[in-house]
Amino acid sequence: MTVADPIARDLALHWPEAVYDVLKASGIRQMCYVPDAGHSTLIRLFGADPEVKCNVLTTEEEGIAIATGAWLGGQRSVVLMQSSGVGNCINMLSLPVQSRTPLLMLVTMRGEWAEFNPWQVPMGRAVEASLRAIGVTVLRAETGADLVETVEQAAGMAFDGDQQIAVLIGQRLLGKKKW
Domain range holding 26? Predict the structure, then answer.
């Protein structure tokens, strides 16, 4: 899609709303997150939805445990985190990987395009390899249109195929952080 394409332009601006719609259509009833500017619109949308239980986490690995428990209790969930949080939950990811429990994670990337904080760079570089090494399937999106389609496919893979899926959301899509 080109910039002149009105659908691409709309998704470039409104991808969080479209991703929310995809996640709702896939049956998400629980959402876990550590507060993150890149996920702020999704967090607000889920927070306003009385059909979805939102869990604010103190650390990302709690989200992996909650998502596993939600599945065992008959509900689908999504875990929202930043790439730096992936490093916090590598050990906990053995739970859904070994038990073949569906897991869907949306990971906003740091340490890439226009990063101002050098502390974010090492984990940003290691996220994909770390997730793959533990057995998680990694998908990546760089545009709003790609993200919506990727999240839809990731939800199907996770919940219909008992897979553990991480969707990496490229930093360029999120825009340059201003401090």
Answer: 6-174
Return all residues near 150 (Cβ < 8 A) that are at least 6 apart.
139, 140, 141, 167
Burial class (CB in 10 A: 0-12, 13-18, 19+), 178: exposed
Read off the pLDDT of residues 90-140 as tens digits, 9 standing for 90 and up. Answer: 999 999 999 999 999 999 987 677 767 778 767 888 899 999 999 999 999
Domain count, the chain: 1
What is the three-class DSSP state of 46? Answer: helix
> Is 13 contained in some domain?
yes
pLDDT class of 171 with cuts at 50, 70, 90: confident
**CATH code of 149's domain:** 3.40.50.970
